[in-house]
Amino acid sequence: MDAVAVSLAEGLRLRRPSWRDALFLAGMFGLFQALMPVLGWALAFRFADTVSAATPWIAFGMLALIGAHMIKESFEDDDDHGVTSLVTLRTVTPLAIATSIDAAAVGVTFGVLEVDVAPAVTVIGVITAVLSLGAVFIGARVGERLGRWAELVGGVILVAIGLRILLDHLIG
């Protein structure tokens, strides 16, 4: 759901995403949501405690930085504000990592429970990609209505997701 929420925020920011951008964004989120449990599974017994302890902090830091940057940009004067935002490997990879890094802990569970990893991560990746694709376009529709406020809202959403991940770890 974090990937879906970030896709929504990206749609808010882009406002008129191309199918190429939306598919790339959704594909990256699906790919990373599938890869992180595999990574966690592969490292299950060697680094389980380290993975579980560090991931919420890493995810919080990445999402807070990206969200703060979006919030800052929302206050800058720019004639084509938000419309020309590029969806590139460089801009999407940190978001994909930040929203999926906690899934490495799921992979640790896969190792302990002896889950058949390939079908599980395939389902995770496909569902994440499909939901994220829809969220980009929903966010874009809302972003058209919000205008310049869309990037501010998107940045606040990213910071809030980062805080939720961190608070879930600290409290729960």
Automatic annotation (TrEMBL):
Domain of life: Bacteria
One GO molecular-function entry: manganese ion transmembrane transporter activity
Topological type in the membrane: Multi-pass membrane protein
Keyword Cytoplasm (UniProt): no
Subcellular location: Cell membrane
InterPro entries: Mntp/YtaF, Put_MntP
UniProt keyword terms in alphabetical order: Cell membrane, Ion transport, Manganese, Membrane, Transmembrane, Transmembrane helix, Transport
Signal peptide start and end residues: none
Family annotation (Pfam families): Mntp
Transmembrane region(s): 22-44, 50-71, 92-113, 119-140, 152-171
Entry GO terms, CC: plasma membrane
Coiled coil location: none
Family: Belongs to the MntP (TC 9.B.29) family.
Role description: Probably functions as a manganese efflux pump.
Name the UniProt record assigns to this protein: Putative manganese efflux pump MntP
Species: Nocardioides immobilis
